[in-house]
Amino acid sequence: MKLALLTITWRRPALLGRLIECFQRQTHEDREMIVLDDAGDYPTQPLGDRWRVVSIDRRFQSLGSKRNACAALASPDVDGYLVCDDDDFLFPWALAATAHALGKHRWAQPREVYEWTPDGQSLVRQETFGRARPNYVDYHSGWSYRRETFERMRGYPIAGEEDNPVRDHLTAVYGPSGNTLCPEFPEPFVIYGQPQTNYRISHLYQRLRGPTMFADAWEVASHAPAQGEFMVGWDDRDYLAIPRPGETKRRPW
């Protein structure tokens, strides 16, 4: 199964370079990575080994429209997509676990992810679905789709909330998602977010819903300075050696 990693980015070259390094370390061989930048920061970035950056200087007006455009740039022979933003981190088994899940299901979601502890020195396993509100999803990173599933649902909504309408629609059509956590891949494959990040990609599009709690983040992100070329690679941290306790944190929501 050939998979495309779909990444959208906005003016965070160090984090983007880190994620591309994650892609290059994947154990699943049949893969490609599409990065879509709508800040116009990287027009001269060369093609890499099975990855490329498409950089334009015109903003997309919604998160859904930007993700759909990223998917449209994938190769015609791609069988499925994995969604991961520039501030996320993928362990080397991410695409292999995704291919395994999509081999059995039309779409898949991780039931657990890793999150940083406040000191940024270790990770905790975190559930991604609410129990008090079982239809509420708190994370969008790590979602994956067979290509025909994505095309049948006509991509993401281009206005309003992005994640939960997709989950509701696909659950109604295909039933619950497959789980990327399984006996063959029992450990979460994604670290969601970054402790030093002052905004998430989703914050860039909150203004479409009117005033929100993310107003300050929008101001920071939308006025971020222009960036130049980025370097592919991790920083000086050995991410594979970071402590990862086995217990899952369960939120009360």
Provide structural commentary.
The protein has 253 residues and is of the alpha/beta class. Helix content is 23%, strand content 19%. It is built from 6 helices and 12 strands. The protein has helices at 13-24, 63-72, 94-102, 147-152, 163-174, 215-222, and strands at residues 3-9, 31-37, 51-55, 80-83, 89-90, 107-109, 112-116, 123-127, 144-146, 178-179, 190-191, 248-249. The protein has a 7-stranded mixed sheet with strand order 3-2-1-4-9-6-10, sandwiched between helices. The chain has a 3-stranded mixed sheet with strand order 7-8-12, with no helix packed on it. Strands 5-11 form a two-stranded antiparallel ribbon. The radius of gyration is 17 Å and the shape is globular. The termini are far apart.
Quaternary organisation of the protein chains: single chain
| Secondary-structure element order, N to C | EHEEHEEHEEEEHHEEHE
Give the strand order, joined by hyphens, for the main sheet: 3-2-1-4-9-6-10
What portion of residues is helical?
A: 10-25%
Q: Uncertain runs with pLDDT below 50, 5 residues or more?
A: none
Query: How much of the polypeptide forms β-strand, as a percent range?
Result: 15-25%
Question: How far apart lie the N and C ends?
Answer: 36 Å
Morphology: globular
State mean pLDDT (0 to 100 scale). 87
Q: How many β-strand runs?
A: 12
Structural class call reads alpha/beta
Number of helices: 6
Give Rg in angstroms.
17 Å
How would a textbook summarize the main sheet? 7 strands, mixed
